[in-house]
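debug: dumping io for the single-chain case to check the tokenizer round-trip. Nothing else runs in this session.
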Amino acid sequence: MIATMLSYALPGLVIRSAGTHAAVGQPWHPLTFEVLAESGYHVRGRAVQLRKPHVRDAKLILTAEAMHRGVVAAMDDSARDRTYTLIEAARLLRDVPARDGIGPAPLALHLALALRMRPAEFNDDLADPLLGELSDFRACLRRARRAVDGLLPALGDQKRP
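debug: decoded output
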């Protein structure tokens, strides 16, 4: 859901999605497609497993949960200052605003500095709706969208579906 929203809003950026424990090649959950379509996002996708080259090449990595962030950092220690949960990134940007349009790499640096300035323990996980009902997928999308909306100005020119 996160990658879909970012891809729609920032068509000039390369946005990729991969799972830390993905069932490679499997279609995304049908309720994911349903809630995305309800919000004007018309996509199809299959699971991709996150690999070291993905991590190494990414300028900014946004995860759903802190556990995913840990998996990314374990793959490549240099990714530690480029990897945040989506909710964490939005919270840090609210606390320490960045200039509009700075882009992914400078935003990752800004977030790293913001985290050092305001270290705190928060539950910044985006609850996985996988075993839930349609209402859980809708709630996940709403929470993710609020966080994505908070990041868009710093990431660059944007469009909405």
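debug: round-trip ok. The mean pLDDT is 93.
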